[in-house]
Amino acid sequence: MEELPVPHNIKISNITCDSFKISWEMDSKSKDRITHYFIDLNKKENKNSNKFKHKDVPTKLVAKAVPLPMTVRGHWFLSPRTEYTVAVQTASKQVDGDYVVSEWSEIIEFCTADYSKVHLTQLLEKADVIAGRMLKFSVFYRNQHKEYFDYVREHHGNAMQPSVKDNSGSHGSPISGKLEGIFFSCSTEFNTGKPPQDSPYGRYRFEIAAEKLFNPNTNLYFGDFYCMYTAYHYVILVIAPVGSPGDEFCKQRLPQLNSKDNKFLTCTEEDGVLVYHHAQDVILEVIYTDPVALSLGTVAEITGHQLMSLSTANAKKDPSCKTCNISVGR
Predict the structure, then answer these.
(1) Under a CB-based contact definition with an 8 Å cutoff, are residues 91 and 101 in contact?
(2) In terms of DSSP bridges, do strands 265-270 and 273-279 run parallel, antiparallel, or are they unpaired?
(3) The dihedral of CA 186, 189, 193, 197: what is its sign?
């Protein structure tokens, strides 16, 4: 009996955060005997483990021989933004239920995509549920060490510069490692209506009137929703001046929020004055995408403690939390 054709020239296309299409070429010889495909998919870091590259051992996915390209979705719990290796065999199911298989194809590598707007909208809807009531606030603030502000004054013309967002939050977030911005907070203490005196990020605080960053000339986007094995949750929002590079980046990738009517951060007008509210039951991390001059606000030392345990720098999201995870991966 002639050997089955070995797949070659494998192509991966239509990659999303939890699916892809795969196709390959085969010699026409014995092609009509093919009843199934065996596909072996591994995370790249584990490519040397659990590799059953023997003719008589079924691999991780046995699929009926459908016309190519074949869509792979739901067969594995694919994770977003993750590198995988894939190899293919052709197979012929025998009368006794066993398979005759070809040699393995070459191993190729690919990377799954970030969350799409559809997936982020699912996260947004989950965050809406727990956002809680809205509290009034009047300033955005940013805590850092004294050395940070000294450096801004000496090397950046007294203006804080956007930097690339770290990898904290959802693994599939399209802003991690890509969006440039400056982190601000706006949370207030329930009893005082003012920013808390403690901070995980440094003892010096830049405060700026809310209308200087968030106004009718800016757009507001939902960026992420996550927790770090804790009871409280974080929501990342992005404020971008209309038409700026940051605005164009977000418009393509993130759900846009109505600045006057959403569950997290609002800017409304009352008697000709802009009024601001933030959600009480989530911790908001606000990214502003343009440089911000220190002259637009004030820098002063806080009187509270530096609570390093609350830092979210490169923090990993809890993949088991039912509140802030969606079903397409982590």
Answers:
(1) yes
(2) antiparallel
(3) negative
Q: Is 109 exposed, middle or buried (0-12, 13-18, 19+ CB in 10 A)?
A: exposed
Mind giving me the DSSP string for 181-192?
EEEEB----TTT
Banded model confidence at residue 175, pLDDT cuts 50, 70, 90 = very high
Closest of 95, 106, 112 to residue 25, by C-alpha: 106
* Non-local CB neighbours of 96 within 8 Å, separated by 6+ positions: none
Nearest to 34, CA basis, from 6, 71, 70, 72: 6
How big is the CA angle at 125 (ends 120 and 131), to the nearest 5 degrees? Answer: 115
pTM: 0.84
Tens-place pLDDT, residues 113-159:
999 999 999 999 999 999 999 999 999 999 999 999 999 999 999 99
Structure tokens at 277: 């509210």
Tell me the one-letter amino acid at 260: K
Classify burial at 89, counting beta carbons within 10 Å of its beta carbon; exposed 0-12, middle 13-18, buried 19 or more. Answer: buried
User: What percentage of the chain's residues is helix, strand, coil (to nearest 5)?
Assistant: 15, 35, 50
**Mean per-residue pLDDT over the chain, rounded:** 88
Token pair 């986007």 is at which residue?
Answer: 221
The pLDDT of residue 293 is above 50: yes
The backbone region for 272, taken as left when phi is positive above 0, alpha when psi lies in -120 to 50, beta otherwise, is: left
